[in-house]
Amino acid sequence: MPATPSHLLTAIGFKLVSALLFAVMSALIRQLSDVTPVGQMVFFRSAFAIPPVLLIYALRGEFMSAIRTRRPFGQIGRGALSVFGMFTNFSALARLPLAEATAIQFASPLITVALAALILKERVRIFRWSAVAVGFAGVIVMLVPNFSLEHYAAAGAGSMALAGSVFAVASAFCNAGTVIQTRRLTQSEPTSSIVFYFSLITTLAGAVTLPFAWHSPTGLQLTGLIATGVLGGLAHIFLTESYRYATASVIAPFDYTAMLWALLLGYWVFGELPGLLVYVGAAIVAGAGLAVIFRERWLGLQRARAAEGPRRPEI
């Protein structure tokens, strides 16, 4: 599909909507985590994402391709990484301010670069390795307050923040691993199948925990739990649709609008204002990620021009 201006606007709009929906979902998880076990939240987030996903694929005539897979073990491997990523992400949201947990997740694309070199044997030059190093430095800057002695002076606050930081970093690594496995699966599996089995496997993982940790939700809490799944499913649909209309290098920078939503929702809903080092670290991580994105876009344009060959002189 040619990238016309209208297509670009559509892609950017879908990407922005996706970022907003994911941010609202994270805020709901943060709010529900006071009383709801993580496994229960994972179950609702995954189970109620399946209906909107299957509906959109059924309307497109892609229902059978969504449930058919030629690589079940590859799907299970990706699903296992997604399970760990979701559990650790929700555990981080339960312990850290919304903006801080979101900012640490921005390290995931940089970790993907490192894993692509180590696992997929992709050629990674010094520029991207430098961006990865700078990005990790930004994460360390954000984590410094959680390891300070002053932070431990408040009863329980230090251990909560430390555990939340560990969970957030672990989630970023899991998400990066998921991206690597997704690259492998897309060689033979359609996106619809990958999305469906992600939701199915994480639903089963959440369901396993229910007999051991269950909170009987109120009507409002149940609505919130169901909303996390619906929002997550819709966000995935908008995210997938955005890539139908434009390349990843064009719309990937708009991922960082999630930080703006996290700041606004964190302040409006929870009265949270991150410390200065969180802003500084988030800016470093975002800058490193954007540098990689724009560098890849520039290289892609250079390769495209080289493939076209020299222009013929006009007569």
Order of helices and strands: HHHHHHHHHHHHHHH
SS strand fraction: under 5%
State the end-to-end distance: 32 Å
Largest sheet entry: none
Q: Which descriptor suits the 3D outline? A: globular
Rg, Cα atoms, Å: 20 Å
- Total count of strands: 0
Stretches where pLDDT falls below 50 for ≥5 residues?
none
On the 0 to 100 scale, the average pLDDT is 83
**Into which percent range does the helicity of residues fall?**
over 70%
Question: How large is the count of helical segments?
Answer: 15
Q: Label the structural class.
A: mainly alpha
Tally of discrete structural domains: 1
Secondary structure: elements and pairs:
Layout: H1 5-32, H2 38-47, H3 50-59, H4 63-67, H5 72-93, H6 98-105, H7 108-118, H8 126-143, H9 149-153, H10 157-185, H11 191-209, H12 219-245, H13 248-251, H14 257-270, H15 276-308
Helix pairs in contact: 1-12, 1-14, 2-5, 2-11, 2-12, 3-11, 3-12, 5-10, 5-11, 6-10, 6-14, 6-15, 7-8, 7-10, 8-15
